[in-house]
Amino acid sequence: MASIKSILSNSPTIDQVGIEERVSRLTKRSIKASSKMDALRMAISMMDLTTLDAKDTPGKVKQLCSKAIRPHESLPDIPSAAAVCVYPNMVAIAKKALIGTKIKVASVATAFPSGMSTRDIKLRETKYAVAEGADEIDMVISRGHFLMGEFNYVFDEIAAIKEVCGKAHLKVILETGELSTLDNVRKASDLAMYAGADFIKTSTGKIQPAATLPVTLVMLEAIRDFYYNEGKMIGMKPAGGIATAKLALQYLVVLRETLGEAWLTPDFFRFGASSLANDLLMQIQKQNTGVYQSGEYFSKD
């Protein structure tokens, strides 16, 4: 394993203008009608349906699980979502509701969304979520330590959380809206992957800006370089602010052009969004019928 100093010294300086110009070019590409339907269905299969509110109840979680299994009753051929993401105390409820399916249960942990707690508490919370049945853990990095340049602290914390995850996959949330620069996004991406992340994730969805295409492109390029250097595929999860099918398809274009078709699978790409599913379903209905349905025909959760 390379030292943290060498890992970060190899993180390239990011040309923000170049990143923005590439995103602009890629998002102007048109998608043929036949390919568009495939892409819409793919986007649904990549969704982590999420509820992370203080007012979450067992009933709300069960309803979300039902939607993950069958996104819309009138569209039985639509794929299920990839996962349901909840707080640790709701993991067992989601796990039970999803018995017999391939849908994963993801749990946020490590004092989500702020990360402002002790490592001992973060480890215990992660262990609890895994013991309750979580297949995936979405942790947040300690942004304060990162911004102070305490990279060893951040690396060691990710590695410690990864160790207690056991067989559960680890998604590391960078909270890119608080990292200030694309250079910091690249450094945090590299740090997380070398520390053991199975996925890197943009945001908690609680801070603005959340996911953006330029930030996502920087993270995808970090994943590409890590694969070239280490031979290991790492997943990507943009989260927060992706509310329309049009925007989701733009993310898929950037993904394909940066990492290739091998990453076009829920195993390596996820959308973290609360409202995206309904717009994807409305677009699919439009492709099928030629007209939009009212949003009232779709569940809010």
List keywords for this structure.
301 residues; alpha/beta; TIM Barrel; eight-stranded parallel beta sheet; 12 helices; 48% helix
Radius of gyration: 19 Å
Q: Name the overall outline.
A: globular
CATH topology, which one?
A: TIM Barrel
CATH superfamily: Aldolase class I
**Spans where pLDDT lies below 50 across 5 or more residues:** none
CATH architecture: Alpha-Beta Barrel
Helix content: 40-55%
- Our measurement of the CA-to-CA distance between the termini, rounded to an integer number of angstroms, reads 43 Å
Compact description:
The protein is of the alpha/beta class and 301 residues long. The protein is 48% helix and 11% strand. It has one domain: Alpha-Beta Barrel (TIM Barrel), CATH 3.20.20.70.
Architecture overview:
- With 301 residues, the chain is of the alpha/beta class.
- It has a single domain (34-51, 58-288), classed as Aldolase class I (TIM Barrel, Alpha-Beta Barrel).
- Helix content is 48%, strand content 11%.
- The chain contains 12 helices and 8 strands.
- It has helices at 4-9, 16-27, 33-45, 58-69, 91-97, 119-131, 143-147, 151-165, 182-195, 213-230, 245-259, 276-289; strands spanning 47-50, 83-86, 104-109, 136-140, 169-173, 199-201, 235-237, 271-273.
- An 8-stranded parallel sheet has the order 7-6-5-4-3-2-1-8.
- Helix 4 links the parallel strand 1 (47-50) and strand 2 (83-86).
- Helix 3 crosses helix 11 (245-259), helix 6 (119-131) runs parallel beside helix 8 (151-165) and helix 9 (182-195) packs parallel to helix 10.
- The longest helix has 18 residues, at 213-230.
- The protein starts with a helix and ends in a 12-residue tail after the last helix.
